[in-house]
Amino acid sequence: MSDIPAETPRVARAYCPACEPDADTLLEILEVQWCAIHMPLREGLDDARVMSDAMLTGSAEAGGDENRRWCDVIHGDPTRHGRRG
Ligand SMILES: [Zn+2]
């Protein structure tokens, strides 16, 4: 608690408006970051679209593990199609 650096970087603190309705954005640098419970899925369609697009295009930056899992599902057992052609 007493280990506060003198020069605190101006990093926005993530907060969920629903969890912290009293948060004062004028006193604090707050960045809206919905928690898992209050995540406005129906309103934040952009994120969902990006995820689905990344899945379709196979972008490695949007979660390699997820893509690999889909690769396994689509291509079947990865050990079977090692040699092809
Ligand atoms: Zn919340």
Give the tags.
mainly alpha; binds zinc ion; 85 residues; 29% helix; elongated; two-stranded parallel sheet; 7% strand
Structure overview:
The model has no long low-confidence stretch (mean pLDDT 72). The chain has helices at 45-57, 64-75, and strands at residues 13-15, 30-32. Strands 1-2 form a two-stranded parallel ribbon. The protein contains two helices and two strands. Helix content is 29%, strand content 7%. With 85 residues, it is mainly alpha-helical. Residues 16, 18-19, 35, 37-38 line the site of zinc ion.
* Ligand types: zinc ion
Radius of gyration: 21 Å
How would a crystallographer describe the biggest sheet?
2 strands, parallel
Secondary-structure element pattern, one letter each: EEHH
Total of helices: 2
Uncertain ranges: none
Measured as a percent range, the helix fraction is: 25-40%
State the secondary-structure class.
mainly alpha
How many E-type strands?
Answer: 2
Global geometry: elongated
- Quote the distance from N terminus to C terminus: 63 Å
Provide mean pLDDT, rounded.
72
Strand order of the largest sheet: 1-2
Fraction of residues in β-strands: 5-15%
